[in-house]
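Subgroup meeting minutes
Present: P.N., E.W., G.H.
Scribe: E.W.

1. P.N. recapped why we're keeping a running log of single-chain structure predictions: easier to compare across weeks, and new members can see raw inputs and outputs side by side.
2. G.H. added today's entry (333 aa).
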Amino acid sequence: MFKAIIVKKAEDETIYAELSDVDESQLPSEGNVTVEVHFSDVNFKDGLCLTGKGRLVREYPHIPGIDFSGIVLESDDSRFKPGDKVINTGWRVGEIWFGGYSQKAKVKGDWLVPLPEGMSLQASMAIGTAGLSSMLGIVELEDHGLIPEAGPVLVTGASGGVGSIAVAILASLGYEVAAVTGNVEKNTPFLKHLGATSIIDRHTLSEPTNKVLESAVWSGCIDSVGGVMLARILAQMKPEATVAAIGNAGDSSLPASVIPFLLRGIKLIGIDSASKETPKRIRAWQRLSTDLPTEKLDSISTEIPLSAVIQAGQDILVGKTSGRLVVNVKEAK
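Output recorded in log:
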């Protein structure tokens, strides 16, 4: 028996979560690698799964947790052997497949990547899906020509998981970083510590405008907000610049014009880290092991025990969290 967070549906259709004992026989039989889970994290999607919102979980009871890191216990996959340290992010683990809020997990070897040399299991979950998405976005910007000399790079939702890691990475690579936040007074010291060179109040970008083109300011952008803000940003990009769309924390709509694409040749690239092919995942994780300063990652992350996950899932949905929440799965209470 081991501990796990179980999400259940009551007879009255109420969804609730609790910390429970689980038998290994309850893990998915289709998995071919069993992992002793050491760490997980808390993402917005985890909050949805824990509370039953968003219809991400279709069958109950269910173990959520979209990310985890740990040590292989058993493997029928030739790429992994007992004792290997591994990371799982995405592939709908924690949504339709039992996830990382469990002291043991059984998944497909295709979904795992080796822990990069020099990175700890704890650090990998301080990074998690949020950091992986940030790095994948930055790689796309660089692959499309972004260099530090091109000018300032904009990061929206900068105090959140994706944004804070993006700010830290970009700053460490020598970029001038403009960070957008909804609470300038509170978050400025934090964002400046991560390396942001300027702080922008999100309200200056969240109001609609009739202008299809604005002054060309940004050489690149990591956006996790969407909606009107993304539309405004598209109109402010420099010619041939690229925007990486990573989330929709503000709105999933995009009330934008095609004119910035036609007259400035800008590019909007979606980042789907959940099903990104393994070679690109490994490349991004290797970059994270070298380009994200450890001291910055430590300042972004807070460790909590498995028993605190249920409340954390509720908090993240209403914006009461900041940075990255790392779950010590082995510490159940």
